[in-house]
Specification:
Blueprint: E1 2-5, H1 9-20, E2 27-30, E3 43-46, H2 53-62, E4 68-72, E5 76-78, H3 82-91, E6 96-104, E7 110-111, E8 114-115, H4 120-127, H5 130-134, H6 140-143, E9 153-154, E10 157-158, E11 162-166, H7 167-173, H8 185-195, E12 199-210, H9 215-218, H10 223-238
Parallel strand pairs: 1-2, 2-3, 6-12
Antiparallel strand pairs: 4-11, 5-12, 6-7, 6-11, 8-10, 9-12
């Protein structure tokens, strides 16, 4: 498991014990001083200077050798069988490159993590004041709100909070793109995996609580908004064919 902490020492202290019995090794990338406290059963990599999330993921992956690698955000807490369920599923399908769990809000409510690749009009609605008229999760097709599958289901992309990935896939596509500042890197890695013929799966029997801040869904005109715009601009530059997806 690879955990990137950017000042989230308390969250890491909750997550590591939950992961310890489910994975062979835990690598925590400390992106800022004070990002990791005293944690048992984890190897800590300290950055001299902060790096983008995706670059830190690659750093953590490079420090491991296992066939499967889990990327887990500090604000997640998996159920005791979440990783074994993902591991068993991805191992049953030779071309399964990415598997993600069912995410839930801290109050137990379902969190939409299985999504469609972005379209032009959909992005405009979600990331402009048009959202005030439509509502944050009004785009039922993008968030697949009418497809709350209780069985494993293929996905375009999955929210990058908790993903089990096959190393062979990461090696083939060149890992995560460290050029993304903060947003869009999970869409990009899933999109490149799709182009290379790797499957992405939502596995709802694996359950993970995600205390998702969702900054860009709550507020406009913040630094997070700017980071998201930069991320989507990079995604479009890399994959200009998505401009045809209106």
């Amino acid at each position: 498991a690879v955990v990137v902490s950017h000042g989230h020492a308390d969250a890491v202290a909750r997550l590591v014990p939950a992961l310890r019995s489910q994975v062979d090794e835990i690598v925590v990338v400390s992106n800022l001083p004070g990002s990791v406290g005293d944690v048992e059963g984890a190897r800590v990599l300290h950055n001299e200077l902060p790096r983008p999330f995706a670059a830190n993921v690659n750093q953590g992956v490079a420090a491991t050798t296992t066939e499967l690698v889990l990327v887990a955000n500090p604000d997640t807490v998996p159920e005791p069988d979440a990783v074994p369920i993902l591991r068993e599923f991805i191992g049953s399908r030779a071309r399964a490159g990415i598997a993600g769990p069912q995410l839930r809000w801290p109050d137990g409510g379902w969190q939409p993590s299985r999504r469609r690749f972005p379209t032009v009009t959909g992005t405009l609605v979600r990331r402009t004041p048009l959202r005030w008229l439509a509502g944050t999760y009004a785009q039922r097709g993008h968030y697949l709100l009418d497809e709350r599958s209780t069985e494993p289901a293929p996905a375009d992309w999955l929210l990058g909070a908790f993903l089990l990935m096959r190393r062979a896939m990461l090696d083939e596509i060149g890992g995560w793109d460290g050029g993304f500042r903060h947003y869009g890197e999970d869409i990009d890695v899933c999109y490149r995996a799709a182009k290379a013929g790797w499957e992405r799966w939502y596995v709802p029997d694996a359950v993970v609580t995600h205390d998702y801040a969702a900054e860009i869904d709550r507020r406009f005109l913040t630094r997070h908004t700017w980071w998201h715009l930069r991320g989507m601009a990079r995604f479009v530059r890399k994959h200009p064919e998505r401009l045809k997806a209106l």
